[in-house]
């Protein structure tokens, strides 16, 4: 099964992806996570360091694919999750989508795609061009990470549009949304009422998750010495279990940009009124 994780930049995709990969490994699956962000820090939480990228390795080998071995580009992370970083072109030049394509090409030549139960692509930001939508060409499911805010849901809608477009020619489905770092989900619910799609999980704002990212550890690794974090692990195990159940998923019918802009803006401009409790009657 191949999964592509998308979401607005800075929303916590990489941390979420690493913890989902670790959760899938906890369920006994052989997992490969492919970082598709030119920052090449997708797998830092699994490995604890910035691993060499595919592009770095190809450059060292003078782009002779036949001289690249799996151990040159695949690194083992926490829980036995294997990790690859695609890397990216120099800032301001080239195409990230091209790099993703070359990464998949190389991994196929190494027969790496046949060894794993789950391959998870962690993709940069919201979809802004065909290049960054490239991982959807290889995926069975897309997951969208969002928070309960306007910008993240606006980006989610753009990603949903890309899934809808790719689903015309690929057996791709949107498995659902993952709410991240939010104690409320009212705007998420408003969006999904207009653009129906499953919500797999909503994770509250938990400082330990942010700290685990900084330490280069998954929350599962931290929980080994801090058992009080097990309930946090359960959020990711729940997502993993839903993925392994092979959800039906949806081909989303995204909202037109202007309609969505008005829908989400209205939430802030005309917030829903909360019924006030009735005061007790004073009996005289």
From TrEMBL:
[4Fe-4S] cluster binds at residues 95, 129. Its cofactor is [4Fe-4S] cluster. This is Light-independent protochlorophyllide reductase iron-sulfur ATP-binding protein. Its EC number is 1.3.7.7. One of its GO terms (molecular function) is ATP binding. Homodimer. Protochlorophyllide reductase is composed of three subunits; ChlL, ChlN and ChlB. It is an enzyme of class 1 (oxidoreductase). Belongs to the NifH/BchL/ChlL family. Keywords: 4Fe-4S, ATP-binding, Chlorophyll biosynthesis, Iron, Iron-sulfur, Magnesium, Metal-binding, Nucleotide-binding, Oxidoreductase, Photosynthesis. Component of the dark-operative protochlorophyllide reductase (DPOR) that uses Mg-ATP and reduced ferredoxin to reduce ring D of protochlorophyllide (Pchlide) to form chlorophyllide a (Chlide). This reaction is light-independent. The L component serves as a unique electron donor to the NB-component of the complex, and binds Mg-ATP. The gene is chlL. It catalyses: N2 + 8 reduced [2Fe-2S]-[ferredoxin] + 16 ATP + 16 H2O = H2 + 8 oxidized [2Fe-2S]-[ferredoxin] + 2 NH4(+) + 16 ADP + 16 phosphate + 6 H(+); chlorophyllide a + oxidized 2[4Fe-4S]-[ferredoxin] + 2 ADP + 2 phosphate = protochlorophyllide a + reduced 2[4Fe-4S]-[ferredoxin] + 2 ATP + 2 H2O. SUPFAM superfamilies: P-loop containing nucleoside triphosphate hydrolases. NCBIfam families: DPOR_bchL. One of its GO terms (biological process) is photosynthesis, dark reaction. ATP binds at residues 10-15, 39, 180-181. Mg(2+) binds at residue 14. Pfam families: Fer4_NifH. Binds 1 [4Fe-4S] cluster per dimer. Signal peptide: none annotated. Pathway: Porphyrin-containing compound metabolism; chlorophyll biosynthesis (light-independent).
């Amino acid at each position: 099964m191949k999964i592509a994780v998308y979401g607005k930049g800075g929303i916590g995709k990489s941390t979420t992806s690493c913890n989902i990969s670790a959760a899938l490994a906890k369920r006994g699956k052989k997992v490969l996570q492919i970082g598709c962000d030119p920052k090449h820090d997708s797998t830092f939480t699994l490995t604890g360091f910035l691993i060499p990228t595919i592009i770095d390795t190809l450059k060292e080998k003078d782009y002779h694919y036949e001289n690249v071995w799996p151990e040159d580009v695949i690194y083992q992370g926490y829980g036995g999750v294997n990790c690859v970083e695609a890397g990216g072109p120099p800032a301001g030049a080239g195409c990230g989508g091209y790099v993703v394509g070359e990464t998949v090409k190389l991994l196929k030549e190494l027969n790496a795609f046949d060894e794993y139960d789950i391959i998870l692509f962690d993709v940069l930001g919201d979809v802004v061009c065909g290049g960054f939508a490239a991982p959807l060409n290889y995926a069975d499911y897309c997951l969208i990470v969002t928070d309960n805010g306007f910008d993240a849901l606006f980006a989610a809608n753009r990603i949903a549009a890309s899934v809808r477009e790719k689903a015309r020619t690929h057996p791709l489905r949107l498995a659902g949304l993952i709410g991240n770092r939010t104690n409320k989900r009212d705007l998420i619910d408003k969006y999904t009422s207009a653009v129906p799609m499953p919500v797999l999980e909503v994770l509250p704002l938990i400082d330990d998750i942010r700290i685990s990212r900084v330490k280069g550890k998954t929350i599962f690794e931290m929980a080994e010495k801090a058992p009080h974090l097990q309930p946090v692990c359960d959020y990711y195990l729940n997502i993993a279990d839903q993925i392994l159940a092979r959800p039906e998923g949806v081909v989303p019918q995204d909202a037109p940009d202007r309609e969505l802009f008005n829908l989400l803006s209205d939430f802030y401009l005309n917030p829903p009124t909360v019924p006030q409790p009735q005061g007790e009657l004073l009996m005289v």
